[in-house]
Amino acid sequence: MTTKITFASLILALLAGSASAQQAPRTSTVAPQDKTQSSPRLNPVAERADRLSNHMVRDLHLNNYQATKLRAINADKVAKMAAIERKNAGNQKLIDEECNGVCKERDKELMAVLSNDQYSSYFGSRATYYRYDKDYASQSASILLTNSVQNPSPARANDATISPTPERPTNRPAGNLGRNAR
């Protein structure tokens, strides 16, 4: 009976040892960021404009030239709308009025880029595109806030991030080993 217990404890000890040996060594908690790509978390306006542009390109069946022009127009107009939303936060009526003015600017610019069929399709779906963008903006604002709280971005120039410190051993030498030890 005791040999079975000893054998079982020996196997458990070997399994526990091999499991801890297979764990990857801890690497540095500072992860370098790719500075060539803009982070969606740091630039939600660009992500919002790209999402709207992708949706419009699919719906309107645009060619590459038209898609490039549309992306530039949407990047400009979404940036203006985001600035309006930040400036007039809390006053939805004023936000809607000013954003409608920006949408009319976009309409004029798109008239020069789209064919007649594409523009008539766009004009009929303007309210849908506007709602699509507004829904994403309100949804992404709460997602970005949650994400920024859970994963804070570096606030310093050296890209250091805040992370838990590694655990230190709890065993300490017994006795007085300080300066006054005799």
Overview of this protein structure:
With 182 residues, the protein is mostly helical. It is built from six helices and no strands. Helices cover 65% and strands 0% of the residues. The longest helix has 25 residues, at 126-150.
Question: In summary, what is this structure?
Answer:
With 182 residues, this protein is an all-alpha fold.
Features:
elongated; mainly alpha; 182 residues; single chain
Unreliable stretches covering 5 or more consecutive residues? none
Measured on Cα atoms, how large is the radius of gyration? Answer: 29 Å
Number of strands: 0
- Output the number of helix runs: 6
Strand content: under 5%
Structural class: mainly alpha
Assign an overall shape: elongated
**Helix content range:** 55-70%
The overall pLDDT average reads: 75
Tell me the span between the first and last alpha carbons: 52 Å
Order of helices and strands: HHHHHH
Largest sheet: none
Summarize the topology:
Blueprint: H1 2-22, H2 44-60, H3 64-87, H4 92-113, H5 116-124, H6 126-150
